[in-house]
Prior knowledge:
Layout: H1 8-20, E1 24-28, H2 31-34, H3 47-50, H4 53-56, H5 59-64, H6 66-81, H7 87-98, E2 103-106, H8 112-116, E3 121-123, E4 126-133, E5 139-141, E6 160-164, H9 173-185, E7 188-192, H10 201-210, E8 214-219, E9 231-234, H11 237-244
Parallel strand pairs: 1-2, 1-7, 2-3, 7-8, 8-9
Antiparallel strand pairs: 4-5, 4-6
Bound molecules: 2'-O-acetyl adenosine-5-diphosphoribose.
The site of 2'-O-acetyl adenosine-5-diphosphoribose (OAD) has 26 residues, from helix 2 and strand 8.
Amino acid sequence: xxxxxxxxxxxxxxxxxxxxxxRIAALTGAGISAESGVPTFRGADGLWKKYRAEDLATPEAFxxxxxxxxxxxxxxxxxxxxxxxxxxxxxxxxxxxxxPGFTLITQNVDGLHLSAGSRxxxxxxxxxxxxxxxxxxxxxxxxxxxxxxxxxxxxxxxxLRPDVVWFGESLNPSLLEASFQVAALAEVMLVIGTSxxxxxxxxxxxxxxxxxxxxxxxNVEKTPxxxxxxxxxxxxxxxxxxxxxxxxxx
Length: 250
Ligand code: OAD
């Protein structure tokens, strides 16, 4: 990967903010996993350029053709299973060690933050590594790869679905409430690798700003949030995040 120059003034300003703050939050999106080789959703090579969300990521699509939806999720599970956390994920895990008040809110379902060692993680769009029974509601981790074309619940034999949030579905209310509370209490909010257009996640940064947080965007390109952030660091998160936490001690 080529070195991208990072604005040194902003970098130093954000480093200082992190040093002075105990309550730090981060919201991550697909961009943080891009350098691990996980495709993002939007952008030139994004998943939604090649696949139709209406056919693969809605409750109606699953009701119509669960085999097709599972085929797509089995493909994504096999792709993600080979991927490793990158320096961006690792920097956020290190930030949690240095600041126990750090909370990571992620829209990603790939589990790479947990693999990197982050523990205080709110997976608001679920996890591709969990399955949920449509009949008994039982939910558990299952890393079998691939799962059968129509996987069944070991408890009640009901049809299983991926435990992820699809378009048209609500987020888990307690996770959402916890996320807005984290945003409201944060002194610094890092918004990393997200197009900042999918709600309600996109509102978290605005909530943080309203409540007085210093909002920092880390992205390779501008987003609708850029004009509202206090600092915009443009470049790959795998390069920027390790720089941000340099010299941060507990
Ligand atoms: P998107 O694919 O919409 O956006 C990815 C963002 O990451 C873009 O703004 C890119 O510019 C940025 N990006 C790409 N590579 C990067 C890098 N190396 N470093 C930093 N930034 C980089 O993904 P999300 O915003 O996560 O929801 O999408 C939000 C939700 O929409 C997803 O959780 C998913 C999707 O449809 C559901 O499936 C419900």
